[in-house]
Amino acid sequence: MVETKITIIVSVLNGSKTLERCLLSIFEQTYEPKEIIVIDGFSNDGTVDIIKKYSANIDYWISEPDSGIYNAWNKAINKSSGEWICFLGCDDCWSSADSLLEIAKHALYPKFNFVSSKMYLVNKNGNIISSVGNALNHKKLALGPRIAHVGALHHRSLFSTYGLFDESYKIAGDFEFLLRVSSSIKPAFVPRNLIFMENGGLSNLSINATIHEGFRALNQTKGFGFVPAITHCLIYYLAFLKRKALKLLFLSKKGY
């Protein structure tokens, strides 16, 4: 395997409780060469102190106000030099020291230009809730992403050809990007849980905004349209109701 540089982008805003864990999981990755970029949205909780603590291991970082996660990602992409690019949130981390190596084994351009894996969803205590992630399937995207976008490798040609993330989205910008490029994606899939992702991101906190942005992305993307957009909304909302019911059932059994 020809080892090509992979850029790992971490966006953070007031993430002092989890950022150090995230960074340490990146530093311990055995794969080389890698580039680490941290974009902070002008945190005021000690996050910048953590970044400064490890600045010698970070290739580029900045702390300044931004308009959201996709603005942060775009700034990072413009500063990146890796042939492949992946994104982690400050509360995500690699599951083992060889996670990046495992996914990098499939970073074989032009045969593949997108590589994803499975990942563990964990609660705030680090306990595993479930395992999620499937291979990217263009025809099934309207049913929901169903892939683990965290830690997935994007060949930089996807951004140079189709543009960066649409910053008008606040939650579903990564979904919109996948829809936009999906017909040209040559996906590879690693059936191993390479990431721990804390269950509590933006898409979990605002169901109405998530559904609205998902509808907009599908409705406005060539090759999809109104019917897939409506179908997506119904499926997403029913899944939300199911999760809510299961949570209530769990709490009732616990006597809460």
Radius of gyration: 18 Å
Percent helix? 25-40%
Write the CATH homologous superfamily.
Spore Coat Polysaccharide Biosynthesis Protein SpsA, Chain A
* Mean model confidence by pLDDT: 90
- State the CATH class: Alpha Beta
Runs in which pLDDT lies below 50 for 5 or more consecutive residues are none
Shape label: globular
Q: Secondary-structure map with pairings?
A:
Layout: E1 6-12, H1 19-27, E2 34-40, H2 47-53, E3 60-63, H3 69-79, E4 84-89, E5 92-94, H4 99-104, E6 114-122, E7 128-132, E8 148-155, H5 157-162, H6 173-181, E9 187-198, H7 202-205, H8 207-220, H9 226-254
Parallel strand pairs: 1-2, 1-4, 2-3, 6-9
Antiparallel strand pairs: 4-8, 5-9, 6-7, 6-8
Question: What does the model show?
Answer:
By secondary structure, the protein is an alpha/beta fold. It has a single domain (6-201), classed as Spore Coat Polysaccharide Biosynthesis Protein SpsA, Chain A (Alpha-Beta Complex), CATH 3.90.550.10. 37% of the residues lie in helices and 24% in strands. The protein is built from 9 helices and 9 strands. Strands 1, 2, 3, 4, 5, 6, 7, 8 and 9 form a 9-stranded mixed sheet that branches. α6 packs parallel to α8 (207-220) and α8 (207-220) packs antiparallel against α9 (226-254). The longest helix is centred in the last third of the chain and has 29 residues, at 226-254. The mean pLDDT is 90.
